[in-house]
Amino acid sequence: MTGAPGPGVVVSEANPWTVRQTEVRYDNRWIRVTHHEVLTPAGTPGIYGTVHYKNLAIGVVPVDGEGCTWLVGQFRFPLGAYCWEIPEGGGPHGAPPLESAMRELAEETGLVAADWALVQEMELSNSVSDERSYAYLAWNLTQGMATPEPTEQLQLRRLPLVEAFAMVRAGQIRDALSVATLQAVELRWRDGSLPAGLQAALGPP
User: Of residues 152 and 3, which shows the higher confidence score?
Assistant: First the structure.
């Protein structure tokens, strides 16, 4: 029988992998792909491919005084499909994540927020990459002019935040960072722990 260790059982958190050789197979501005020759935790020879991300992943859920948020629609090349997501992008590792979140929100939506709260930090695909994300809630908004990158073709949609929650449950929002962040915000709404103004704007769960 397998399962979680029982009370009092100590499981070592030491690295059980031995790296014998590494070779960078691909490198660009955004990612680096490395091939590793390893000994597995069982002591047998193996290989492991890893992807290093050169930026943090940044996501924002903006909420206005009417309890509405904004989603960004765009065609995602790797999937060959159109996706709806929260405003998101990348931020340099050396810069404060909040500064990157402010920039991404303004670029994609034109919104400037007076108030911010970190919702969660997350590893997005830890079996193959080291990509780390920071997701924020933003409110007390002022509308300005969006300035997306020339390579981006974005569509904006303003809708009640509770409808975005429903889109996650219906599988209409599938991006991992968007799903996790919206669900984290929904949990705060349902347990009444959102900032008072936002809790009132969304109404009772």
Answer: 152
SS3 (DSSP) at 5:
coil
Residue among 178, 161, 159, 3 at smallest CA distance from 74: 178
Residue located via tokens 């979680």: 4
Of 84, 86, 80, 54, nearest to 177 by C-alpha is 86
Given a cut of 80, whether residue 136 has pLDDT beyond it is yes
For 167, the enclosing helix (H) or strand (E) is helix 161-169
Residues 102-107: contacts with CB under 8 Å, at least 24 apart:
104/58, 104/60, 105/60, 105/62, 105/138, 106/144, 106/146, 106/147, 107/146, 107/147, 107/148, 107/149
Distance CA 178, CA 29 (A): 24
According to the model, what pLDDT value does residue 183 have?
Answer: 98
Nearest by Cα to 88 from 72, 64, 67, 77 = 72
Nearest-CA neighbor of 168 among 184, 180, 179?
179
* 108 and 102 Cβ atoms separated by less than 8 Å: no
Specify the pTM.
Answer: 0.90
DSSP-assigned letter for residue 149: -
